[in-house]
Amino acid sequence: MTNKNKNSRGVAATGIIAAIAASSCCIPPVIAAIAGVGGAAGSLSWMEPLRPYLIGLAVVAIGYAWYNHLKPVKKEDCCDIEAKPKWYQTKSFLVAITLFAAISITFPYYSGIFFGDNKKEVTVADKNNIQKINFKVDGMTCDACQNHVNHAVNELPGIIDVKSSYSEGNAVIEFDSTQTSILEIEKAINGTGYRVVGKK
Length: 200
Description:
Layout: H1 3-22, H2 27-35, H3 51-70, H4 79-82, H5 91-105, H6 107-110, E1 130-138, H7 143-154, E2 159-165, E3 170-176, H8 182-190, E4 195-199
Antiparallel strand pairs: 1-3, 1-4, 2-3
């Protein structure tokens, strides 16, 4: 195996790993919601600050793999042309890893499709029972996180409206206090793996 071939495989693997790692903080919430479990959803949130660097590494690595594949073959490497290329040396493989990397990197932006719409129509007997509370939530880092919180809270009875925001670090919830309580809502949020650190 030539150095070029070793480099192609190593660089492609680096690109894929970096692309997956770039969205690793957003993948657990979706898996947790699909599986119906919580707890570990926010466990990789510490990687969020590294996301821009991991995306950059993935782009550079895959770009270099393409450069390495497309650059003209030197005369001393001419004998490699006759040998059938390995699967990781083909253009199809590079196209596949490029698409996979793009799907992985953009995952936070389309992850909402994995959370079913579980919002229910709530009948309120007395409008005086409607309460609105703003929870300060720690650990949310992307759209997948806030969608997970919204989904978990909407599972409770009496939830009229829930709006979570990872950028604001909060969840504003309107509910019928005769059907659910602040404590139950807090438990639902904490059950996702993120943590309520305050409320008002």
